[in-house]
């Protein structure tokens, strides 16, 4: 190989190789994760009558859909309880006000949210907290709660109650809960946030001496043993999900700092609590081993924070994805309450969005909390609607799970009905569930316009229906409509077009 070729190959490697790749993306990417967390643990649902709560959730989803959100992360298990019908754990007090008390009139909030999200072309991620049982020891548990059957599986720490992460029985039960959800509900993902071993309280060590004596053989370092306990759970949850429905994703939204550089040369230039050392969550290992399908680090600080600078952390995570999809957890209130250091007349949203979209390894963001978007705090929702989410976006493809696109839609036709002028199509044939079309994308182009389905500005609908109502006016304007199919992991089929006069 001559020297010139060697130099060219080296340049190519450096341009596309290790590390975060900075790129000039379209201001309106066609593929982008646009999530929002809807929590229950803050009590916003507690004791609200069924019909009123249903309407509240519908209003929230309508607002979020209008703001371009395409994935909802909904908390369904805050305290080893359930915001869904479960034979394993009691109804949540965050729903009815009393743990174990079923809602009346009866309904299943998770099933309701799955249906409503899917109607709107949104993913539904079931958010569970693995170990937490009581956020306060003052809370009363239902008589049929697992704690009252097996109190030896649990530990008290800092006025809270937790499953003991060291026990095989704890892991077995948590995996049973995951299996129950995945097998009975059409969820798109199982999601866990930053709560693994509890956040450390000053001067208090986690009370696991007995468990370490019993299960710590082979470990001289208790911190390594604790991390191993969580690692085993994460691996088992991943295996549980894959064994039941290989299209269901498993995602984590960890605390925003993995490790500080002072503790690990590969860590970030930060000075705060750490996933690895304090919560015993080795998030990078999970991604590296393929046990999680996406990460959404909670980078809730502002640009310029002295201990945990947002820009520093975004760049660090962008370089440390371990070949798994990365999205950025965004604090709405922190973003609007802090000025851009380079432009003090503006809040930090423009700069944060520019940072996220500058890196090829970052595939989107998730808003915390969803309610702040709905309430348009600091005109945040307005900014999403008018600028950052101006056009729809499809959820990124998880090609390591499935990279085969579904077949094309068939028999596209335009039909006058009593409901108006409609575009109908027949779903493509499928060999199995992974191959089945579950959504359709409808694009519109002018009669003489070049068809480019990579341009998100032409998307007029993302729908689970096999029809689309055409906006007929007087029949004098010619358009070309294009329809594609999406499978469960958002692989997109080849397109089929139909000319229409509107």
Automatic annotation (TrEMBL):
Pfam families, A to Z: GHL10
Signal peptide feature range: 1-20
Protein name (database record): Glycosyl hydrolase-like 10 domain-containing protein
Keywords associated with the record: Signal
Coiled-coil residues: none
The Glycosyl hydrolase-like domain, residue ranges: 32-331
InterPro entries, per database record: Divisome_Glycosyl_Hydrolase, GH, GHL10
